[in-house]
Design a protein that fits this description.
Layout lengths: L1 H28 L7 H5 L2 H7 L13 E5 L14 E5 L3 E8 L14 E9 L2 H5 L1 H11 L6 E3 L7 E7 L2 E9 L6 E6 L19 E12 L2 E16 L3 H14 L3 H4 L9 E2 L1 E2 L6 H4 L50 H10 L14 H5 L3 H8 L1 H11 L8 E7 L7 E6 L5 E6 L3 E5 L4 H11 L7 E7 L5 E3 L2 H5 L5 E9 L6 E5 L1
Parallel strand pairs: 2-10, 13-19, 17-20
Antiparallel strand pairs: 1-3, 1-11, 3-8, 4-7, 4-9, 5-8, 6-7, 9-10, 10-12, 13-16, 14-15, 17-18, 19-20
Helix pairs in contact: 11-12
């Protein structure tokens, strides 16, 4: 038995020795002299994964930095992208900063670069249907833009351009060596693109993206330099302030441990680098010989006449019949309707009605036009479409006395089937917009084709056949729809005529 116990002790001591030796071996293998991380990274599997990553020496330093002077939300998780709340229509400053190191991009020293600022969808699903989403927004908000530049407040930006076909983008030139600030206004709110749900709506996030280019050829800025963007949500006026306050109060109620999972609210929003917007290089460059919508290089947005596009025939200027008269006819084509709008000083809305024929435009009610064009232009367009002239202040009827002997025959069916002749006397209606004697004289000259300078006086025949000079006060006391027989007599000196109203 003692021998068995002794053997157990020997075995245990041997195992312990082996275990210690194995531990010491591990320690030696992990020592500084034996272990090299580079040897591990040299393995084929790591080489394959790392081949797509640029070496540290090739890491590009961003040439520019864009900072929006608005606080970020405090209710954003630690590793999520920042979120900034904006008020609809409020001006927000974006500072465009030169971030180049000494010697970087010397070709743009002292030269202008072009930046395009746009508001786009953050949600990938909405990006795929962006065109349909924006078309629906334009229909509900005619004449408005999704993004505008506050010109008076902006600093260092020149040659500002907006494209009527791209309501969500503005472009301008700026000098990286000078202070530059662009103040933007976002007019679309996040809930306008959210399906209505019971119990409220959750607005979709947008992105503010800035793409910057240098000049490749004279007048063409197509060489991409830098792009950056940030995530935003847009609320109705004052809504962003309330949302920021609500998020701050919620974070204050959280425990210190919970707060560690959220990033702090920063006073400014730094736009992070991203890929350039897909259509950016060609969106604002006219590289084709075909007509393209003209840009407005003035502070205010102007809309150009629509050109050839997929929804209207090409070559609008060739063989287009001119719109005749003041009235727009239901049979008017799209091109004729466009000409009518231009002729009547509605060129601002020609693009909005670029696909409307005469019948389409005439179907719109007064309320429709007011909603589309605003109260002033909407009422003016409605009156022009309906050919509504100024309502006359007074209407009188006149008939030339010597023409009373001229009878216009008309046949009327009698109850017995026989016809009988009836005589009618031809009167002319005179509509007075001004209650003045000179207006009566002018209208009489037009009706009876008498040169105005040959009419000396206009009299009204009074009791016992006396002639009363027609004055402004007399015209103001004419009864509406009064009837007069008109006689012309030569003046005493033989020059001109007198007109007598009987």
């Amino acid at each position: 038995m003692a021998w068995v116990l002794k053997m157990d002790e020997v075995i245990e001591s041997g195992l312990a020795h082996d275990f210690d030796a194995s531990l010491s071996g591990i320690g030696q293998e992990l020592g500084a002299g034996a272990y090299s991380m580079s040897d591990v990274l040299a393995l084929p599997i790591f080489k394959q994964e790392d081949s797509s990553l640029p070496p540290d020496s090739d890491t590009k330093h961003p040439p520019f930095q864009y900072v929006m002077c608005t606080a970020t939300s405090p209710a954003v998780k630690l590793h999520d992208e920042t979120l900034t709340y904006l008020n609809q229509g409020q001006s927000y400053e974006i500072r465009l900063l030169d971030n180049r190191k000494i010697g970087d991009m010397p070709e743009i020293n002292g030269k202008m670069v072009k930046s395009i600022i746009r508001v786009v969808f953050h949600d990938r699903r909405l990006q795929y249907t962006e065109h349909q989403q924006l078309e629906g927004w334009k229909w509900n908000r005619p004449g408005d833009r999704l993004l505008d530049l506050d010109i008076p407040m902006s600093v260092g930006v020149i040659d500002i351009k907006t494209n009527p076909s791209q309501l969500n983008a503005v472009e301008f030139l700026w000098d990286p060596g000078k202070r530059t600030s662009a103040f933007i206004q976002v007019h679309c709110i996040s809930t306008e693109f959210t399906p209505r749900k019971h119990g409220g709506e959750k607005g979709v996030p947008f992105r503010i993206q800035v793409d910057t280019f240098k000049q490749a050829e004279p007048g063409e800025y197509t060489d991409h330099l830098h792009s950056a963007s940030c995530q935003i949500k847009v609320f109705k006026p004052k809504g962003a302030d309330r949302k920021q306050k609500t998020d701050r109060e919620k974070m204050e109620k959280r425990t210190a441990h919970e707060k560690e999972k959220y990033q702090p609210s920063y006073d400014t929003t730094i736009l992070t680098e991203c890929s350039p917007w897909p259509d950016t290089p060609t969106a604002f460059v006219n590289s084709s010989p075909t007509p393209t919508p003209a840009f407005a290089s003035t502070p205010h947005n102007t809309y150009s006449v629509p050109d050839s596009n997929s929804s209207s025939p090409n070559h609008q200027g060739d063989g287009i019949p001119q719109v005749s008269g003041e009235q727009l006819h239901p049979s008017a084509t799209i091109q004729e309707t466009q000409q009518w709008l231009l002729k009547h000083r509605f060129s601002t809305y020609s693009r909005m009605f670029s696909n409307f024929s005469g019948a389409d435009l005439l179907k719109l009610t007064r309320e429709d036009l007011v909603q589309i064009c605003g109260p002033a232009d909407g009422i003016r367009l409605y009156n022009a479409l309906k050919s509504r002239s100024v309502r006359p202040r007074l209407t009188i009827y006149v008939c030339q006395e010597q023409s009373r002997s001229l009878q216009l025959e008309r046949q009327q069916d009698s109850g017995s089937g026989e016809s009988r002749n009836g005589a009618i006397y031809v009167y002319h209606a005179i509509y007075l917009e001004e209650m003045a004697a000179s207006e009566v004289t002018r209208k009489l000259a037009l009706v009876f084709n008498i040169p105005l300078h040959q009419i000396n006086q206009v009299y009204r025949q009074g009791p016992t056949g006396i002639h009363i000079l027609v004055s402004d006060q007399m015209v103001q006391n004419f009864e509406d729809e009064s009837c007069f027989l008109v006689t012309t007599i030569k003046a005493e000196n033989g020059e001109g005529f007198h007109i007598i109203l009987k």
